[in-house]
């Protein structure tokens, strides 16, 4: 194992006492590390193991090279190539950032561009909330911590050696080796070395400009400002070009600028202990210096920064969810999941170089396709202030750049995998009463543009059939036919998403009293039905979503999606999975499945082992816990009042595929989406995004309190539960007996509330009340009554 966690503090009562809850967040527990030396990591979780503040801009950690993509910079094997200030967490596609690098080097440096400017691991990395430690083969030990916009390095070089150096490489980036043309490039920059007037210590400033990454971004620039706490000598260097290690100049020249060639500086020290403070900014070098000097002033110890970061996580995140539970495994899972779902998106307010605005700015959205089902609804509950800022940022981006994209990073849109799922986030927030400073009329205008304007094709080789940077590129078919033909990639899965997006738009329009738009987009939200092919059959069931063109349906195996990628009919999900995913119209899906009994049997087949052995199979089931199209499926039993099966399936998934261990995720974290799914399971609820509806599961804790802000809380208790006894026998909501398999936002979250469960070892038929609403199945007029009730409740 390459990374070891620290678990600090006493166990009993810590979570209830609101003490140092960061002790339970194992920042490497989702690291998916192999115990044997191999390239890559187990399960590809790609989470970031370094140090960061909640939603913080700086994510300081190691970059390793093995010849394969290092998405968060980290790899369990390979050589350290640098320790950089900016990373992302749990992303796929291609690496992003890995910039503003320092690298310790022991020995004389003749060529700072040499392939020898890397180092091995001497022992396992160590990490905890607010702290990262790497022991290098050279004998150097490097410790790190971070604030929001700055970081601190503490170098302890080996005794009795010569030439202690820190290499600053402006041209360092995380690259991609997948051959998709998404690799990042250094496009030029500057480095200048200065001497502090009051001392003989050097500091450096400059900038680098880069492009690409998973969102295929255009050029963006980051500025930096780095200080050392001791005297140094220095040389700056400039390469002949970016691709080779050939030097143009390596001298004591105080400044170098590059348009294409590699660029940096080497600082050399006479002592074994060196501390460096580095700030970053997307505005200017002076702002980078201001950031580091305000957040980590001269003389600040790494212990002080670490303690400040731990306090930030405790006060801003971990204290929002408390329990008297003493089971360390459960506490580790709870607080580790909370940690990883709070790394993205990035709060870059005050650091937007593109336009001046008094509005907040959030970046690094990977992607709404990944996070809208479970992460954004939980962020709303746990971080209502950040969440409102996030919505305002989305709208402000539309004001200045014309689109609310499904994905964004480094101030550029990109990587639209399906529909415009920011629309679903807007609808979810609106129908749950988020008002504040959000301009909902502007939000509606942004949603209408997504629904009506075809974006310009950005010629992404992953999908040459249309734009991937923003919008819905298959709108020509959607407008003309009411379905999507294979001339557009991901035609069937996008048809499902476009339908849900249109329903979200209709709901917000009605809430803002625009009945004309409501009717138009409500009717368009039913277009997914045009892809339902009753003649498709598999495993004894008939009727599935299938591809079609203007001449009719195209043959398709319901349990195969080919490559399940950009150019296929379905994206990261089987036809079987997507056939459950028109979540606004579940009543129609149940009818198409020949009624409640067959619908239940079809759901059960989804979780039956041994029926599927295709790509991405988990336990040979059709259900895939590692991809988002399956996220809601275990809770769809609510629509047939089989809450016991909600519990049976969701509990099995959570216990089978999630663990507080190096192999603790079922796949890519997807910027915290996986962790948020687990958190909902532990809480005992699950959201239906775009409606103020929550399905009832089964809580893992005898007590759990969620701080909702504003003096409100949700208190959850359970009696009689254990690892074997988890079926709900009865439930009281706000002290009153409950008989429904679902709850509304306005039952327990709007003003706070209580949930009191009684659990047992066998299913109990207690959900005899009405099933969850399926608004699109009601028809345009009856649905308007329901949606208006939701919107009016949000206005109160």
Automatic annotation (TrEMBL):
A Pfam family recorded for this sequence: Glyco_hydro_92N
Start and end residues of each Glycosyl hydrolase family 92 N-terminal domain: 39-281
UniProt protein name: Glycosyl hydrolase family 92 domain-containing protein
Glycosyl hydrolase family domain mapped to chain residues: 287-761
Domain of life of the source: Eukaryota
Residue ranges of the region described as Disordered: 454-473
Family annotation (PANTHER family): GLYCOSYL HYDROLASE FAMILY 92 DOMAIN-CONTAINING PROTEIN, PEPTIDE N-GLYCANASE PNGASE -RELATED
